[in-house]
Design a protein that fits this description.
single chain; 279 residues; alpha/beta; 2 domains; 5-stranded mixed sheet; 12 strands; metal ion binding; coenzyme a biosynthesis; potassium; kinase
């Protein structure tokens, strides 16, 4: 089995993948912590022959995790943000400072679509662009839905936005405080993503496929105004591309990858942007 770990600042996700069939056997998530317990936090390691890790947690968390794994697992692969990988040139002046989860998303998106806008809707919402040809432009970071709610300190932080809500409902004025908060932060998030996408496509003269991942991708997706796809395993896809261990991965197939969304014509994106600027 292959154990894939996506360690975030708050939540850590894992999945077990069959090394022969490339099928996903199980998955889970736990709060990120300093001390990891196989069998409770992550699967028992006696069935694991290789591990791939993407981590944005504190260095001590990553170091402790790697030390634990290397006691029992033959191969442990840790992803790093690099100046260039898999045909993509990192747009950061200091490539190592780009969050590795964003880098994995960019690499996965590029392998899938040959140029894309990747949006990760987690604790923060990150928006990155890579052009056809592999030039990563850099990106944007804004507060995620939960972080925006916590910043208001109105006692509504534990009342989540229903991911099954329709966008029209979430964009309507709230008639009680919880609704006003939820609808306000939703409006802020989806408006920012829509505007960022349109502005960058206009400036670069290219309409890019849009891919969303992260815990809030499903609800944010409902307010995105251009064709797009939700790819929950996009960070894992980057790990598969960087460290291919199965026959399917070596052939370029990433588990759970969606069909590439066909973007709007650039002229339509520009027309929408021009109209919004007139209002």
């Amino acid at each position: 089995m292959i154990l894939d770990l996506d360690i975030g600042n708050t939540l850590s996700k894992w999945r077990l993948k069959d090394a022969e069939s490339s099928e996903i056997r199980s998955r889970g998530a736990v709060w990120t912590r300093e001390e990891w317990r196989p069998g409770a936090d992550i699967p028992d390691l006696d069935v694991v022959e290789a591990v791939r890790i993407s981590s944005v947690a504190r260095r001590s968390v990553l170091a402790q995790t790697v030390a634990l794994l290397r006691k029992q697992v033959r191969d442990v692969h840790v992803a790093r943000s690099e100046a260039e990988a898999l045909g993509v040139t990192n747009g950061y002046e200091e490539p190592g400072r780009l969050g590795v989860d964003r880098w994995m998303g960019v690499l996965a998106g590029y392998q899938l679509a040959g140029g894309c806008c990747s949006v990760d809707c987690g604790s923060a919402i990150t928006v990155d662009f890579v052009l056809p040809g592999g030039r990563h432009l850099g990106g944007y970071i804004l507060p995620g839905l939960r972080l925006m709610k916590e910043s208001l300190k109105l006692g509504t932080r534990n009342v989540a936005i229903d991911p099954d809500s329709e966008a029209d409902e979430l964009l309507a004025p709230g008639t009680k405080t919880v609704e006003a908060v939820n609808h306000g932060i939703y409006m802020a998030a989806v408006s920012a993503v829509n505007r960022i996408y349109s502005e960058v496509c206009d400036r670069e003269g290219v309409a890019l496929p849009l891919l969303l991942t992260g815990g809030d991708a499903r609800v944010v997706s409902r307010g995105i105004q251009v064709p797009h796809a939700v790819w929950p395993d996009m960070v894992y896809g980057g790990l598969e591309a960087c460290f291919p261990l199965t026959a399917a991965e070596r052939a370029g197939r990433m588990a759970g990858a969606p069909a590439v969304p066909r973007p709007c014509a650039l002229e339509k994106i520009r027309a929408g942007l021009a109209f919004s600027m007139l209002l």
